[in-house]
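User: I've been going back and forth on whether these two constructs are worth ordering. Before I decide, could you fold them both?

Assistant: Sure. I'll take them in the order you sent them. The first construct and its structure tokens:
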Amino acid sequence: FGSLLVAIIQTLRAMVENARNNDDTEGCAAFLLCLVDCLLSCLEGALEYFNKFAYIYVGMYGYSYFEAGKNVITLFKQRGWSVIIADDLISNVLTLFAFIIGMLTGCVGLVMNEIEESWFADYGGAASAFGFAFLIGIVISMITLS
């Protein structure tokens, strides 16, 4: 049910975007369409975030979607916004760790280039060794930490 609500909002946003892209809209109408698009975007983001918690309740406790939604609202009221802030900070910390791991594997790529220069000679030497290893490290760590 939650995905249906998000799909309806996305459809409304697509209709507003289509109306905004028409050459007929000018002045006040264009401003109102921009405002409606912004409001729908905010509503879509909040609903997707709420759905994530509601689906977790459905999966963990077997509640119906509506019952899970009520429990999520109760959770937010009891805990305040600390749950949301913690969830947001965790994603930032995991991204930082993935970047650090990418930097470390990039350094491993530089060491590999020093040990055997012929491996990366055709691709630009040290810069390509670092870039290739960094890319591998960050992709694997983002997959692992997500």
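The second construct, handled the same way:
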Amino acid sequence: LLHAAGVPSERLKLIPQLLQHCGHLARQGDLFSNKSFFAQAKKSLQRGIKGVQNVYTQHQPFLAQILEALSRNALDEAHYPHSPTYGQMPKPNRSRPPQEVIIFIFGGATYEEARFVAEFNEQQRQIAAAANASGAGTSVGVRSGPPPMHVLLGGTSMLDS
């Protein structure tokens, strides 16, 4: 179907690579954070302690853990590998977090994930603005902090729950 639609053969070769690096055989993470006894105990304690005003916003999507780790440049490469073999793509710079992140969720993204990404982008912008404001005495043209990370969320559809 893709070949008939005019997709170049070099792009079609990416599909097996994507499946190898990101398919169900490569996934090892704890998607629902419930695989260990300690994770279950932590969740039940947090529910009891956390004073949540709105029951619908108390759940944090798994995407939250991924983005928080990415912003600290602490993503486990065993769970989130990169594929440097395609074309002229440069190898990721592991010395600092990325500035631009595109997340595309096959099967659809939820409104909760979209809300979290919007809040995360605003938080990153505020952190960068505070870092730049605190470095007001530095020389002209020199930024005091790293540029903020910006996340773009996409998906095949928007899911309401």
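Notes on the second construct follow. The radius of gyration is 19 Å. The mean pLDDT is 75.
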